[in-house]
Each structure stands twice: as structure tokens, then as C-alpha cells.
Amino acid sequence: MTPRVMFAIAARVLAQLRRDGRTVAMLILLPAFFISLMWWMFHDKPTVFDQVGGPLLAVFPSIIMFVVTSVTTLRERSSGTLSRLFTMPMSKLDFLLGYALAFALVAVVQALVVVSIALYLLGLDIKGAAWQLGVVAVLDGVLGAALGLFASAFAATEFQAVQMMPAIMIPQILLCGLFVPRDQLPSVLHAISDILPLSYAVDAVLGVAKGNDLTTGTGGDTLVVAGFILAALGLGAATLKRRTA
């Protein structure tokens, strides 16, 4: 890994995003829009919104980051840009870490917007500190980006990259505890949920909502999420193709 190359890749990605206002708007505003829509749906049942609002702060950023990063990376490969980049002294890990760093910075802005709106405009009730919820939300966004980078290695077209989303993300959404608490799932499904990264992302948000500190039980969940991020980036570097066949 070469930090200079990694930062150069991150700067390049951020410059591309700056020229693509629609993508930036989707990354930053869509999670807040979806949370607001859920608040509106449960406007007469605020306790229900308090129950589902926290987990959705993990789910929505992850989904949106997954779609954008997988399609963006695939576009780099199918257009031949990736092949040209690899003619320079750059490793696959430099490329993926640069992308991850760029989208991590976007995730910070995304988290600031969605957490601020959820807490201060929509009245989401949590017992933990807002900054801790923001930290977890950033990690969840980076998790989606890392999974998107990994998934893009198995797609040949942008359409296939989008198809990866339901295959990879929907099972996690169903089993992460959003609809049924994980400890109430059938034993086989509970065991499957224990190896899915979004389960720990949701657990971390729920822990903060209950007032747990990041240095206690919730910290363990955030470390697991960070571990999944590193694993996805490592596997992505191992499987990344320089060009589309």
C-alpha cells in the first residue's frame, strides 16, 4: 500500500463526485428522505418510529452506498479507465482504499445530515450521545461502500452491479433485526444473521439508542463492522479485475 497513491485516487474520486451533482444528492439526501418518509408513515405512532428509526440509520446509508460504489467501480473497469490506472505504479489495494477513503468522507457528510434530521427535526428518541450515533452511521455507510467495491468484482456490466444489491443486501435487511429481533428468529436464520455484517451495524445503532457507550457492548459491534469493512476491501483487492471480459 502506498499512501500517496491512495490519497491521489481518493482525490480523483471526490473530483468526479463533485462534477456529478445527482449522485452526490442521492448519497447525502436519500437516507434523510427515506427516514423522513418513515417518520411520516408513523407520525401517529411515534413509539414505532423510535423502534425502527435507529436501525434504518444503519440500513439506508449502507444500501445507497452499496449501489453507488458498485456501479461507479464497474464503470471504471468497463470504460478501460482501470486498465489505464494500473499501467501506473499502483496496486489493487491502493485503488480500493482510495475509493473507500473518498466514500468515507462522503459518509461523514451523509451521517451528519441524516442523524441531525432524525434527531433534531423528526424527534427520534435515543438515550445515547448524538456523536456516537453519528460515528456508527459513518461506519455503516463505509460498510455499504466496501461491500459495493467487493461485489463489483463479480459483475460484468453496470446492470449486473445493480442486480448484486438484492442478492447481497436484501437477505441482510430481512435478518438484521429490523423486522423481527434476531433472538426471535428460527435457529438456522439466527445463525445466518450472526455472520452478516448488517446485523452488527443494526446492533450498534440499537446499542447507542439504548444508551450503551461505544467503549462497552456497542463498541464490540462497531469493531465487528470495522472488521467486515477491512475484510471486504481485502477480498475486493484479491478478486478485482482490471478490465471487463
UniProtKB/TrEMBL annotation:
Listed GO CC annotations: ATP-binding cassette (ABC) transporter complex
Keywords per UniProt: Antibiotic resistance, Cell membrane, Membrane, Transmembrane, Transmembrane helix, Transport
UniProt record, GO biological process: response to antibiotic
PROSITE patterns for this protein: ABC_TM2 (PS51012)
Transmembrane feature ranges: 21-42, 54-74, 95-123, 129-154, 161-180, 222-240
UniProt xrefs under InterPro entries: ABC-2_transporter_component, ABC2_TM, ABC2_TM_bact-type, ABC_2_transport
ABC transmembrane type-2 domain: residues covered: 14-243
Domain of life: Bacteria
Subcellular location: Cell membrane
GO MF annotations, alphabetized: ABC-type transporter activity
Membrane topology: Multi-pass membrane protein
Similarity comment: Belongs to the ABC-2 integral membrane protein family.
Name the record gives this protein: Transport permease protein
Native source species: Kribbella jejuensis
